[in-house]
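Sequence in, structure out. Go.
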Amino acid sequence: MALLFTPTESQKLKSIQTFEPVVSIPLGMRQQQWSPWLRTLAEADQLRPGTARAMVFSPDGTQLASATDRGEVKVWDVETGRCRLTAKAGEGKRCPWFCFLPHRALLATAAGIATCRGTAGQLIRFWDTLHGGGDTERALDLGAAFSAAAFLPDGLKLAAADEENISVWAVDSGSLLHRTRHRRDAPHALACASTGVEIVSAHRSGVCLWRMGPDGLTRGGLVRDRAKSLVAFRPRNGQRLAVARPASLQMGHIRLAGDPPQAFALTYDFLDAIVALPSRGGRLAVASRDGLDVWDVAKGMSTEKRIRTFKGLDQNFVSLALSPDGSRVASASESGLKIWDVSRSGGVGPDARNDLVAPRDHQDEVCAIEVSADGSKMVSASADAVLVWDPVSGEKRPCAGAGGARYVVLSHGGELLALCPASGDAVQIWDVADVPVGEPQRLSSIPHKALATPSFSRDGTRIAIMTDSCAPRVFVWRRCEPAEPFVYELALDIGTPEPRGRLGPGCVAFAAEEHCLAASLGGTITIWDLLQSDSWGSLRPEPGTGTEAPVTALRISPCQRWVAASFGGASIMVWDTKSTSPADKYLTTLQMDQNRVDLVAFVEADSSQFRFMTNTGLVLFRFDEAKGEWQRSREGYGINLDGGWITVGECDTNVLQLPPDYRPRRATVVPRTSQNGLQVGAVVLGTYSGRIVALSFAGGY
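Output:
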């Protein structure tokens, strides 16, 4: 287990000649270098809809505060990844400002209040981050809504700016010490030098420098700039200032003796980038779509001073923070809130590289992973590419010219692939029987814009496609010989009693017998006999069973008696289609232990037990007559998507925790037939960064 995630270029792995792991990763899917991604503080699902938009490290770098759109500020322990405190800073709105106090274990947050004068004000609350005991009795009322604020280095004073003034307040007593009119538009950022004397304010019209003396604040100069900027001093040297603009980053020395600052001499272009300004160690972090760069800016900024570059590990950054000593970077993106180790490089010794470029199978987020029923083929899809894999060797072949796809499905034996392009009104059929030796070959197109993942019949002679052109329908196409193209056979109308805006995704599935087909759009399931072109009837969720979510996966048992549907990935509902009474068709609702579980196959069933293959493993439901309820257990290996663990056994025991860069956005399983019947042979992970990884379990496929 210890060697499972060891990179291929690791000296430790090279020194070991042979080993037989319980779990293995195909060589073609292994990472080459150690990842700098230390841990995930919050998964993307936990962040939405309150994705972290701003972050700040504590002065000692052991804690990280992040704000959400729900008006909360969460304080995380950087080493353990646990949330130590949740500060309710606002009433359902994003906290406008928060900051750790220098030299104190306190977090300050701002929230709007109504003052005695009836105008909107700002109240600063203080929170104990060591003991997590909520806010203290101390509060600071600034009396007017401020647009930017910063603590002075001693932690005893707070500088705050509003539409008219820049003020300095005593934190403990709450008294006003200084107030000066800035005579410009309201600042959007403030920074204080380590001397405690110099203050810089960033306005849309430029950057102003101020000096604090016994008589208040005096202006020291102005740099005119029409772009919105972020500003920061390098704490060890109060004469060095950094300014980040939307399209550039600049650094330079300043003069505070009444003269304007020197012109910024060093400029680096970071279009559409997010910048974390200099830390105590004189470092700078910049995130863009290409990756994450860390710079040493102690003496300037040039290519020789770029100390780390991480690419291919994450994308779509929305926020960034750098620890005071420059050893850790925190990032918020669509994949979660993460901590990065800046000291990690592409190796050790004299030949070590500063660039760590992780191979990325998909440049965009993986939107679908499908495995053929016999486990011989696998396909992954994103908005940029469709890849066909051999899950044993990890070799892959692209569907050249296909572009990206929204939905993909393989035939039972893995010979055919149907994909629905991200843009386009046709379903493409590909021959993938020779992969990985040969390349996928495009056979034909079917002129339908699919509303859901298509479905092949077991023998691959039919394909069903759901569309919503004019009215929701399922079109069935058929071919008689493998060399022939698919031709139109019939169309089936779908009943949709729900309002159009609540339909959600659709589902369509063949039974083991190719003439039986089920489809759902919203919550209603319709079953047809294609030989008679007639419907067997409709199945609907039982009221009050917690299945208000739309159907996300649909399967029919091999005997065609039982129909199972996954609702929103959290529960599975089962019907008995042979029941003569419509009221008795509904059998039970089986609750899952995770929120991202979908049906892959209906393995076996009778009136007292059901065995399902899901995207997280093999699940058995057995009715306990003594307790009068259904009992759930797992069989063999599986995955806990919410916790990032490989599990085993009926108690779902965690046996292997996935490293941060192996945490999946999508996942599915590769079935394996053994003496004990159908088992899980491998778990396939579609990671947030776009990589595809298969964890194969002992025993092969």
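Check: Residues 11-15 form the longest helix (5 residues). The chain has a mean pLDDT of 76.
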